[in-house]
Structure formats: C-alpha cells, structure tokens
Amino acid sequence: MIEMAWPQIVLIGLIFIWSGFVRSGLGFGGALFTLPFLLLIHNDPVFFLPIISLHLLFFAGLTIVQSERNKNPEDSTSATINWPFVRYTLLIMIVPKLAGVIGLLMLPTDLMNIIIFSLIAGYALTYIFDKPMQSNSRIVDVILLAAAAYISGTSLIGGPLVIAVALRHIKPHEFRNTLFMVWWILVSIKLTAFVIADVDIQLLNALLLLPFAALGHLIGHRFHQQLLQRDSRSFYRILGWILLGTSFVGLSQVLI
Q1: Which pLDDT value is given to residue 85?
Q2: Where do the domains of the chain lie?
Q3: Is 220 exposed, middle or buried (0-12, 13-18, 19+ CB in 10 A)?
Q4: For the chain, how big is the Rg over CA atoms in Å?
Q5: Mind listing the pLDDT tens digit for each residue in 25-55?
Q6: Helix axis angle, 109-128 relative to 45-70, nearest 10°?
Q7: Is 9 helix (H, G, I), strand (E, B) or coil?
Q8: Ramachandran region, residue 131 (left: φ > 0; alpha: ψ -120 to 50; beta: rest)
C-alpha cells in the first residue's frame, strides 16, 4: 500500500468490503460503485484498477465455478451462463476494450478523473430518475456494447451499458453468471495489457485487501436472491444521490 494515514487505510478496507458486496450481490458494480470513493482518497485510477481487476477475476471465477457445481440439471431456473450472449458481446467489445486500455495509459490522470467522475454522475442521474438505459435493436446493442467496452477499458465502469443490452437478451436467473463471464474475459484482457505495458498490477496490495473484499462477497452472495426478488428502485435512487454527490466532490478536487 502506498504511504497513507491509518484513517485512509481503514476507509479503503471498508470500501473494498462494499465492493465485494455489490459485485456478488448484483453481478456488477464492483468498480462503478467503489471507484469514485477510492479516487477521493488517492486520485490515481491506475493504482486502484489493477486491484479491482484482480479481485474481479478471483471472485467472478469462484462464483461461476460454485454455481456450475451446484446447478440442478432438473431446475430450469438454476443459475447458468448464456454462452450465445457471451460470444455476441465479446465479438463487439474486444477491439474497443483494447482502445480504452490504451487511452487509460496515455491520457493525463486529471483528465481520466474528470471522465470517470462525469460518467458516474451520468449513471447516477439514471438511478435517481429511475430511467435505466435500454436497448431495443441490434444497432443500439452494438453502440452500447462498443461504448461500454471503451469505458471499461479506461475505468471498468461500463457495466450499466452492458446491462442495458443484457436485459433484452438473457433471463434473470442467467444474469449474474453471464455478466461475470463477460467481465472475467474482458478484465483478463485488461490485465494482460497492463502487464505488457509494464504497469504495476498491485498484486501485494490486492492480496492485502482480498479479505475485505471476501467479507463483502460472502454478504452479497447471501443476499443475492433477495436483491433479485425485491423492488430495488429505492436502493438505486439512494445510491444514485450518493454517487452524484461523490462525483461533484471529485470533479471539484480536480478542477478547482
């Protein structure tokens, strides 16, 4: 861990508990719902993104393996992976994903922070006003997935755009595992690009923070079915206001 005061270290640990919870409970949001808080503590996305990526590889892989092992062949609603959707998304997303990683490594840190906080503010408004992004055609699918891939390459926060497409193609019980497989493959590409570019992937820090993320993962895994069954609009609206406020604080730190 870089040199930080103990209160900052404690806050980072709590944020990674939250990261594990939302990733496991919702199937997305490990970066979207945590990166803005982390950037208020240390404003370098290249420091935190490898840690988040390594955690996603570990926990997404673990969840998929456990789900496939426990799947009941006689239960048509057992959690599973929609492989046609995985192939469909990857064919569209791989090239813009690589372009996004290049952008992350080349763009100035302050500009990247402005982009990240601005995107998160935009997502927050969709949650506040309960106006989720939606796709209604193949053309819109391609536009959203390509944009999501580039954004994910720069900051790992392209999830809402992929979900806008996924809702049109996959069933609720396939949702989490299918998205986890997409994230797993895309993040593997991102980490490979980091290694090729000689970026520090923060392996030691990822290991130190793994128990915190694991605690959140276990809590989120336990509440996953309840989160799917309940009306979560109030939860997202509150979260939207928090993300919007955090984005304004982050933008003010960069611009003022």
Answers
A1: 93
A2: 6-255
A3: buried
A4: 17
A5: 776 667 888 888 999 998 888 889 899 899 8
A6: 50
A7: helix
A8: beta
Place of tokens 């064919």: 91
Amino acid at residue number 39: L
Give residues with Cβ within 8 angstroms of 25, minimum separation 6.
219, 220, 221, 223, 224, 227
d(CA 115, CA 152): 12
87 C-beta neighbours (distance < 10 Å), count: 9
Inter-residue contact 30 to 23 (CB < 8 Å): yes
CA separation for the pair 156, 154 (Å, rounded)? 6
Q: What are phi and psi of 84, to 5 degrees?
A: -60, -40
Cα distance between residue 121 and residue 250, in whole Å: 10
In this prediction, residue 69 has a pLDDT band, given cuts at 50, 70 and 90, of confident
Tell me the C-alpha distance between 118 and 124, whole Å: 10
Q: Are 155 and 250 in contact (CB under 8 A)?
A: no
